[in-house]
Amino acid sequence: MDSTPDTQPSVPAPSAAARTVLEGPDIARALTRIAHEIVERAKGADDVVLLGIPTRGVFLARRLADKLREITELPLPVGSLDITMYRDDLRLRPARALARTDIPGEGVDGRLVVLVDDVLFSGRTIRAALDALGDIGRPRAVQLAVLVDRGHRELPIRADYVGKNIPTSLRETVKVQLTEEDGRDGVLLGVREPAPSGER
Amino acid sequence: MKRHLISATDLTRDDAVLILDTAEELARVADRPIKKLPTLRGRTVVNLFFEDSTRTRISFEAAAKRLSADVINFSAKGSSVSKGESLKDTALTLEAMGADAVVIRHHDSGAPHRLATSDWIGGCVVNAGDGTHEHPTQALLDAFTLRRRLTEGPNGGVGGDLEGRRVTIVGDILHSRVARSNLHLLTTLGAEVTVVAPPTLLPIGVAHWPCAVSYDLDSVLSKSDAVMMLRVQRERMNAAYFPTEREYARRYGLDGDRMARMPEHAVVMHPGPMNRGMEITAEVADSPRCTAVEQVSGGVSVRMAVLYLLLGGAGPADTTPADTTRSDENGQPA
């Protein structure tokens, strides 16, 4: 979902140490490349369904769908998949608000589902997404596209399409900003404040 | 959010909107091939019913099961209560079984409050109707139905409240826990409430309630966005509150003529069970403007939302403002 395994991550009071590692045009180029890779690997992308993981994964999925439409000249189903109810850390914090799950009318059965998220970190979000997807239908295959892979996996999960690999230390935060949600495009690398609750 | 749901007054506007929004998301689970979420796996919900109920009990049971909780149904009939066991001893038994939540319906007003404020049980308490006091989940599902029906656009009012909507509650206000909970919740959500009843069926102190009072149904119909008809509770009426049923139906019942005088968008609500021919005619009950069936189907989603928000995390949901931009993670359980 985000830079940290928790949902509402440290929007790093970015002032101090945060530095921009990807600018708007870099993000656009990365998405264009991922779109081409999807078409190449799926040999045409005609049974692809894009499912974004809220919040920013959904915007990325919509942007990818636009790029894919330019390439294939076919409209492509795009939706969102909320994973809140499937998280493995629900009981560590007060109950969270849910985000929208919106499965395109065609469903996912027998299709190639590409999950889209902004940052791949522990892999726990994707584990939850796979569980959520299993309750919705049976895709032909599931692939994963992320804008940033920052490493530190805690589960055997990897991405099929990566916008940019950013090696990080656990003390760092990765924050993706998108115009739809944050008013600007960019990826910020910051330093995590020593967390008072000491999670992780 | 508070840890227990005893009264509609326990909810702030943000709490109530969060419950309605969560219910709106959970309602979509009902359209899936697998109508189940793993969220409350390993948690135990006890339905403790000292009073007859079909709708509410089934709805709470379905809600808990869709969230994968273990459900224990306890009804006073055929249990040790009929042998004279007290509420306290029943509660201690449930605690010994490890109940994470107790959904209680009781014929005495205040029983859920007693259960929540005693140290008999550690789980959270959800009031499913107590005496003539409150029935908060009914009010929530009424608000859920109202928001859906009265808000245009694809979003069905998600994120919004009922600001400026005019709701008229008609009938046995004196005995109705549904009326009390609705009055508080609808007011919290910004609606303007008018209660209409014969003077004998209004409680003492109604003048201090945050609502308008009228004895004349016809004068308020044309200004209502929703009319909520209450059941005449014969079982609670040990005195003569009105001369004859026929006179009550004529003055306070909703028939086709009266419905025609309501604004075009206005809906008719009824918490059920209906007395057809008494407070509502069959013509009105069966018309598409009557939301009684929607109210029942919304009930499961709303109760799922309540159970999830109370039990799903380490503590009840946090509704401090600006939830989405919260920067640190040490949200203290309330």
From TrEMBL, chain A:
Tagged with keyword Nucleotide-binding: no
GO molecular function: uracil phosphoribosyltransferase activity
Pfam families linked: Pribosyltran
Location of the Phosphoribosyltransferase domain: 20-167
GO biological process entries: regulation of DNA-templated transcription
Keywords: Glycosyltransferase, Transcription, Transcription regulation, Transferase
Keyword set includes Transcription: yes
EC number: 2.4.2.9
TM helices/strands, residue ranges: none
Motif (PRPP-binding): 113-125
Main enzyme class: transferase
InterPro entries membership: PRTase-like, PRTase_dom, PyrR, PyrR_bifunctional
Catalytic activity: UMP + diphosphate = 5-phospho-alpha-D-ribose 1-diphosphate + uracil
The protein's role, per its UniProt record: Regulates the transcription of the pyrimidine nucleotide (pyr) operon in response to exogenous pyrimidines.
Family statement drawn from the similarity comment of this UniProt entry: Belongs to the purine/pyrimidine phosphoribosyltransferase family. PyrR subfamily.
The protein's name: Bifunctional protein PyrR
Organism whose genome encodes this protein: Streptomyces radicis
Gene: pyrR
From TrEMBL, chain B:
Start and end residues of each Aspartate/ornithine carbamoyltransferase carbamoyl-P binding domain: 3-147
The family this protein is said to belong to: Belongs to the aspartate/ornithine carbamoyltransferase superfamily. ATCase family.
Subunit structure: Heterododecamer (2C3:3R2) of six catalytic PyrB chains organized as two trimers (C3), and six regulatory PyrI chains organized as three dimers (R2).
Cellular component, GO, one term: cytosol
Function: Catalyzes the condensation of carbamoyl phosphate and aspartate to form carbamoyl aspartate and inorganic phosphate, the committed step in the de novo pyrimidine nucleotide biosynthesis pathway.
Annotated NCBIfam families: asp_carb_tr, PRK00856.1
Pathway it works in: Pyrimidine metabolism; UMP biosynthesis via de novo pathway; (S)-dihydroorotate from bicarbonate: step 2/3
Domain of life (superkingdom): Bacteria
Sorted UniProt keywords: Pyrimidine biosynthesis, Transferase
SUPFAM superfamilies: Aspartate/ornithine carbamoyltransferase
Chain's gene name: pyrB
Catalytic activity, as annotated: carbamoyl phosphate + L-aspartate = N-carbamoyl-L-aspartate + phosphate + H(+)
Pfam families: OTCace, OTCace_N
The protein's name in its UniProt record: Aspartate carbamoyltransferase
Enzyme Commission number: 2.1.3.2
Gene Ontology biological process terms, A to Z: 'de novo' pyrimidine nucleobase biosynthetic process; 'de novo' UMP biosynthetic process; amino acid metabolic process
GO molecular function ontology, one term from the record: aspartate carbamoyltransferase activity
Provenance organism: Streptomyces radicis
PROSITE patterns assigned to the protein according to its UniProt record, in alphabetical order: CARBAMOYLTRANSFERASE
Binding locations of carbamoyl phosphate: 55-56, 105, 135, 138, 272-273
Residue stretches making up the Aspartate/ornithine carbamoyltransferase Asp/Orn-binding domain: 164-310
Residues annotated as binding L-aspartate: 83, 177, 231
